[in-house]
Amino acid sequence: MRLLVALAAASAVAVPALAAEMPARKPGLWELTMVMEGGPMPAQTFQHCIDAATDKQMNTMGASTRNDQCSKQDIKQSGSTITIDSVCNFGGAGTTTSHSVVTGDFNAGYTVKTTSKREGGPSIPGMPAETKMTIEAKWSGACKADQKPGDMIMGNGMKMNINDMPRMPGAKK
Description:
A hairpin with a 2-residue loop joins strand 3 (about 70-80) and strand 4. It is globular, with a radius of gyration of 15 Å. It is α+β, with helices and mostly antiparallel strands. A 9-stranded antiparallel beta sheet has the order 3-4-5-6-7-1-2-8-9. It has helices at about 1-10, 15-20, 50-70, and strands at about 30-35, 45-50, 70-80, 80-90, 95-105, 110-120, 130-140, 150-155, 160. It has one domain (about 1-165).
């Protein structure tokens, strides 16, 4: 559970970047590795089984975050590179200014490099105010027989499904 909390805290900085008008990913099993430079977490690798509906749902959740909490969301595409600059206020957690560069192919593999600076709000133990995060994603093939769309399998084998997370906007009931 502690790993999930740390993963959620780290990915909160990247939510606006990851969900910003991204092209649809190829359905199937994606393996993602998240590395945060200078942070308390070691590299985290997990698998995510998606179909078109789950991928769209995740973008919808990200859009909700952007609309509710981001005063700036500039998205530019040049060829296969997407650049996102955002300023988001997470209430009591302060304001985060992020710059993300997304490169690659949403059918085979892509990379997201995000630099973020958090100002205001309480300090988060072990989480620096300035972070650099890289997410490498690779398509692995079809989801396994025991997986359903939305399943996330952590490196330690723990499995959860985004559709089962009750307070996530857009989650299927």
